[in-house]
Write a structure and sequence with these properties.
- The structure is a single chain.
- The chain has strands at about 20-25, 30-35, 50-60, 60-65, 70-75, 80, 90-95, 100-105.
- It is an all-beta fold and about 110 residues long.
- The chain is built from no helices and 8 strands.
- It is globular, with a radius of gyration of 14 Å.
- The relative contact order is 0.31.
């Protein structure tokens, strides 16, 4: 058994978003994501081959989906299911504090 803490070992400064795999199997991956003012580059979209369920634990962020007209702002405790191939992007993450996400990537078959 190994104990962990989602709020431990957060660097005070980092240039790139940090993706840490916490658990992985053939069908799923659980990941901690650390952001600090990060966003998806303009004109780029995520179009993933897997579903993603993500919860925002600390900070704030805003997601935008290609087939929606309004962005979705997330605060601590907010979660969202992103189906495979739902084109989306991170519009912004909190620049005043670190944003901590927990993401579950999985396939439905």
């Amino acid at each position: 058994m190994e104990k962990g803490n989602l709020f431990a070992h957060i660097p005070p400064n980092f240039t790139n978003e940090i993706l840490e795999t916490l658990l992985a199997t053939k069908y799923l991956k659980l990941e901690r994501i650390l952001s600090a003012g990060h966003a998806t580059a303009r004109g780029e979209w995520y179009n993933q081959n897997f579903d993603e369920w993500v919860i925002l634990l600390k900070g704030s962020a805003c997601l935008f989906f290609d087939d929606e007209t309004e962005p979705i702002e997330l605060q601590p405790g907010d979660y969202i299911h992103i189906p495979a191939h739902a084109k989306h992007r991170v519009e912004w993450t909190d620049s005043e504090q670190k944003t901590v996400w927990l993401a579950l990537h999985f396939t439905q078959d």
